[in-house]
Amino acid sequence: MDLEEEGGESLPARDRVSGGRALVPGLHFIATPIGAARDITLRALDILREADVLAAEDTRTLRHLMEIHGVPLAGRAVVAYHDHSGEGARARLLRALGEGRSVAYASEAGTPLVSDPGYHLGRAAIAAGYPVYAAPGPSAVLAALTVSGLPTDRFFFAGFPPSGGSARRKWLRDFAAVPATLVFYESPKRVGEMLGDLVTEYGPDRDAAVCRELTKRFEEVRRGTLATLAADYAAAPVKGEIVVLVDRAAERVVGAEEVEAALRERLARMSVKDAAAEVAGLLGLPRREVYQAALELEKDR
């Protein structure tokens, strides 16, 4: 019986080869284009052509990509594996691995496991003792870093922020002092609000970049300070996939008087915990040290 998208038990074994060699059994993660279809690698196409079982975050996207590059399904179904698939789809793929099959999994776009449901599939395969392989390729994170003009020696990928204002500001605050270029994904509907929150939490002068529709026809990269970019996007709705990058905070010596003044101003309207968290993020200081200073000030009030 063929393995179906919504059910089934197994797929007929095939004597497949890839690049002149048999495609080894195991889970093969494939990076897929984030825009331009020609960005897929030759190795990824080989794996898609020769794998016993195909799985994808978006089955329509993978089918279309295979059609563009002339890769036949050859009687194989494409198993849907996404955030709403449940345990059943993962169990079927693990069963195929247990039968000694080769399973290819493709993200909807970009590298699997980066803001992608493939993480749990990979963890389950590793826990069960099955080999896991990666066919590297397109990545919105790395593409954005390449064109941003910001430092690439160290970077921190934070993913999508919360959608709500207060929750987003609190979430952003945790990364304020990270000594690396920060990389975020964001919805085009919320990018203006997010940039405004970045100005509030990180200050107006940090260098940043907003990358939109990378590798696509209307690719756009805007660079400037957070204040400049926030103003640009405040009243200008945009469309497409968005990556926001922010440079690390400039290193500076913070004196005790500056810390005390910042804490006193916030303690007048905030709890000790919240005041310490905000000042620590703003000044790039260890939260525990600032919290202790806030406790001492609170005792003297």
Automatic annotation (TrEMBL):
Where is each RsmI HTH domain found?
A: 256-297
- Compartments reported by the entry: Cytoplasm
The top EC class is transferase
The record ties this protein, via Gene3D superfamilies, to: Cobalt-precorrin-4 Transmethylase, Domain 1, Methyltransferase, Cobalt-precorrin-4 Transmethylase, Domain 2
Q: What is its main location?
A: cytoplasm
* Transferase listed as a keyword: yes
What chemistry does it catalyse, as a reaction equation? Answer: cytidine(1402) in 16S rRNA + S-adenosyl-L-methionine = 2'-O-methylcytidine(1402) in 16S rRNA + S-adenosyl-L-homocysteine + H(+)
Per the record, GO CC terms? Answer: cytoplasm
Return the PANTHER family for the record.
RIBOSOMAL RNA SMALL SUBUNIT METHYLTRANSFERASE I (PTHR46111)
Question: According to its UniProt entry, what is the function of this protein?
Answer: Catalyzes the 2'-O-methylation of the ribose of cytidine 1402 (C1402) in 16S rRNA.
UniProt protein name: Ribosomal RNA small subunit methyltransferase I
- Give the organism the record lists: Paenirhodobacter ferrireducens
| Gene designation | rsmI
